[in-house]
Amino acid sequence: MDSQKLETILDKHDRQPAALLAILQDIQEEENYLPKEDVQQVAKALSISLARVYSLATFFSSFSLEPRGKHICTVCMGTACHVRGAPKLVDHIRREFDVPETGTTKDLNLTLETVNCVGACALGPLLILDQEYHSNMTPAKLDRVLKPIKQD
Amino acid sequence: MTTPIKTAVELSACREKLQAERDPQRKVISICAGTGCRASGAIKLGDALRGALTEKGLDQQVQIRPTGCQGFCECGPLVVMHPDQTLYQKVKAEDATEIVEQGLGEGQVIDRLLYQDAEGKSYRKESEVPFYRHQKHLLLANNSKIDPTLIDDYLAVGGYGALAQVLAEMQPEQVCATIKAAGLRGRGGGGFPAGVKWETCRAAPSADGVRYIICNADEGDPGAFMDSALMEGNPHSVIEGMIIGAFAIAHPGQPIGYVYIRNEYPLAVERLRIAIDQARERGLLGKNILGSGMDFDIQINKGGGAFVCGESTALMASIEGFVGEPRAKHIHTVEAGLYDKPTNLNNVETWANVPLIINRGVEWYTDIGTGDVSDNPWGGSKGTKIFALVGKVNNTGLVEVPMGTSLRQIIYDIGGGINGGKKFKAVQTGGPSGGCLPESLLDLKVDFDQLTEAGSMMGSGGMIVMDESTCMVDVARYFIKFLAEESCGKCVTCREGLRQLSAIIDRICAGKGQEGDIELLEELSTVVMDGSLCALGQTAPNPLLSTLRYFREEYEEHIRDKKCRAAVCQGLITYSIVAENCNGCMICAKKCPEKAITGIKKEVHVLEQAKCIRCGICLDVCKFDAVLVE
Ligand SMILES: Cc1cc2nc3c(=O)[nH]c(=O)nc-3n(C[C@H](O)[C@H](O)[C@H](O)COP(=O)(O)O)c2cc1C
Ligand code: SF4
Ligand code: SF4
Ligand code: FES
Ligand code: FES
Q: Considering only residues 125 to 144 of chain A, which have any Cβ-Cβ distance to chain B shorter than 8 Å?
């Protein structure tokens, strides 16, 4: 991230160590992941240990330390979505796109993530593709939804 | 008009002015724009309705009002036509022109968009639809009346009136006593009496008078969304509750407010942020609120996607910028919580109940619910509770009912029973710390104490209905795996114990269960419960133990007969083609990812077991019931 931008984020939070979580969230929002240089810069700017920054970044599941794909596909694995067949969706996407354990395809086209509930449980299973919500998903319906990104 | 409101009198004047300006006969089309209805296309629908109104030159006369969740997400997007209150369901953008052309005139109704029950009977008004008729909307009542992004809408329905009354007429101690007398118990899980917590926090010493007032909006229970619906649909009710709490707990000291909110709820975060900004603009947050001499403001902190951060001490560690690990509560957080100051944490729904109690009074409130709280705040469960009714039930959505409503009423009268004519098997309440209740307990009256007695708990209000096609071993496996992943790792029993439990259940589901596994699960569960520090570990085995208690035979079948009666566990099932039903449409062969199905057009297809990975797609796509799973 260019250093000007990072400075703006740090200033927005008054360089307070208490705002560490919020600072990392802002960085990830801009960069799609947490670049190593930025994490180091944050530790320095807040005068806290690099270990503390990394312990937070690895504790919370919403952070990624690796670059994420061009498209982000999030499958809800909350209870309501689980009992309506969400695991089958994940299996299907893994297979169709050859997604490795890390979640991101080699060509950086797609990142597959899971989340525990997005608050639309009545309509499960839920899938969010690039911030667009799709409800009552089935593996068969998936093909249609994912078609545009397959051709990318 | 954004002039600050400085006194209670000014607030009443402002409300009266707003009410006088508003014509109750004005035509308003309210569209649910909650997360669920958005997923079903509410935004496009809103644009289409606006376009259709403009085209007809009606955009000045008719108002469009986007609202928060109205509960019946299953049938979304929902549209309500005011003042007639006609409810349209599953409305699509393509229906917009028809609604504008044929739905706005006196008595005009578009029949095909009305809600129809299973017998084909139509209902016009929201209040007539069975899903709503058996509910009691108090907290959700205003969700259809207000646009959550406009504070004026909240003021016009009497919003912040309770705050004005408290500041003008009551002493802080009196407010605590009122909440205690009302028997309001925490809606976040434990059911601890809010009034007792408030009094203890107020009494705790604080040298500089700082006391933290926190709203727990982390809503970690996966499969529950009542807190999100309150924040999306009526954020000011939560804020008003918190300001009243700040006065009761900390005035004349220095109350400081936080909302710790789940990051996976972008819409709720946005709505809350707008609401806090508007409250600040109007002087309802900030310095000298309504001339009371009290200063109070609220900051939003977004979580990072860790379930354990909903636990009080972990949440506070997270606000301080540390990893969300719970600590031992030798000293309670009401005495030394955030930054070691007295801290009062309540759940979103708990806060939203506060203005209601002040407005309508203790007597009215204690009339709703179970038990007697007149001299024991633990003596009953008062008020309503919102449940997220989801899973295999016909009408899924948010359900607000008086405490003490039976499971049967909720699942059958409101939920319309099990979908697809299948048989009810269990209902899971209480989230990952809760349990599964069988059919024999359907007449259980749902309140804090009855649920706990039955081996489950109220939790935050998740209610997941399961039918014969849900495997109870798989459900236990799901929760244990969830908790093993979410354990913060501090306690060995929780971190390693859950991992081992998970491995044993995985083995059972894969068809490799052994004699003695059930006993091992039970023994290990005791160790996890006894040896863990926080309630995550202490209650983690609940879903497992409750399924063992009520559905033991399913475990035995998995282990002894290598059979999953619900046909869920992949290691124990096979797919096959039923020759009599197969008409050779070829769709399964086309869709099978492993090319395990072969056949030619109009002839019975064949499934090759060795190639089949049991993905279930063929079952999904076959329209002729010709794929069998067993
Ligand atoms: C692991 C764990 C997760 C929790 N998650 C939540 C949560 O998401 N929301 C919540 O309000 N309470 C949650 N709680 C309960 C809180 O610790 C706390 O009791 C509650 O917020 C207090 O508010 P109340 O008295 O108004 O219910 C959780 C507790 C534990 C042990
Ligand atoms: S019980 Fe589990 S979640 Fe709670 S503190 Fe111990 S390890 Fe962490
Ligand atoms: S279950 Fe999946 S792999 Fe097996 S036959 Fe059906 S579609 Fe093919
Ligand atoms: S469980 Fe999937 S949206 Fe809540
Ligand atoms: S989101 Fe529209 S009814 Fe729930």
A: 126, 133-135, 138-140
DSSP-derived pairing of the beta strands A71-76 and B63-67: unpaired
What residues make up the domain containing B343? 159-375
Kindly state whether residue B371 falls inside one of the protein's structural domains: yes
Pair B268, B166 in one domain? yes
Which pairing describes strands A71-76 and A110-115: parallel, antiparallel, or unpaired? parallel
Q: Tell me: the pLDDT tens digits for A60-110?
A: 989 999 999 999 999 999 999 998 889 989 999 998 899 988 899 999 999
Over range B351-357, report the average pLDDT.
98
B173 and B310 in a common domain: yes
Element (H, E) at B248: helix B235-250
User: How many Å apart are CA B396 and CA B387, to the nearest integer?
Assistant: 10
Rounded CA separation B361/B351 (Å): 16
**Ligand 2 test: best mutation among B311, B318, B325, B433, most atoms within 8 Å of CB?**
B325
Taking CB atoms and an 8 Å cut-off, how many pairs form between chains A and B?
158
Q: Which residues contact B190 (CB under 8 A, 6 or more apart)?
A: B535
Give chain B positions within 8 Å (CB) of A126: 39
Cβ atoms B626, B604 nearer than 8 A: no
Q: Are B216 and B354 part of one and the same domain?
A: yes
Q: How many structural domains compose chain B?
A: 5
Indicate if ligand 3 lies below 6 Å from the C-beta of B622.
no
Question: Does residue B308 sit in the same domain as residue B429?
Answer: no
Same structural domain, B358 and B426: no
**CATH code at position B592:** 3.30.70.20
Tell me if B217 is assigned to some domain: yes
**Domains within chain A, CATH numbers bracketed:** 3-59 (1.10.10), 71-151 (3.40.30.10)
Is B144:B31 a contact under the CB 8 Å cutoff?
Answer: no
* Residues of B whose CB is below 8 A from A62: 263-264, 304-305
Ligand 1 site-directed mutation target among B201, B249, B311, most atoms within 8 Å of CB = B311
Mean pLDDT, range B39-54, rounded to an integer:
96
Q: How many CB atoms lie within 10 A of CB B82?
A: 18
Residue of B481, B615, B502 whose CA lies nearest to A94: B615
Radius of gyration of chain A (CA): 17
Q: What is the DSSP letter of B536?
A: H
Residue B153 falls inside a structural domain? no
pLDDT at residue number B1: 52
pLDDT above 90 coverage of chain B, percent: 91
pTM score: 0.95
User: B402 and B440 share a domain?
Assistant: yes
Element (H, E) at B65: strand B63-67
Query: Looking at the structure, do residues B32 and B93 belong to the same domain, yes or no?
Result: yes
What ipTM does this complex have? 0.93
Q: How far is CA B62 from CA B59, B81, B85, B110, B218, in A?
A: 6, 10, 14, 18, 38
The residues, any chain, with a CB within 8 Å of residue B259's CB and separated by 6 or more, are B214, B215, B217, B238, B242, B272, B298, B299, B300, B301
Alpha-carbon gap, residue B247 to B253, rounded angstroms: 9
Q: Is residue B596 part of a domain?
A: yes
d(CA B336, CA B332): 6
Q: What is the DSSP string of A9-74?
A: HHHHTTT-GGGHHHHHHHHHHHHSS--HHHHHHHHHHHT--HHHHHHHHHHSTT--SSPPPSEEEE
The C-alpha angle with vertex A138 and arms to A133 and A144, in degrees rounded to 5, equals 70
Residue B490 and residue B620 in one domain: no
Retrieve residue B273's tokens: 């942020």
For residue B57, give both structure tokens: 């030159």
By three-state DSSP, how is residue B30 classified?
Answer: strand
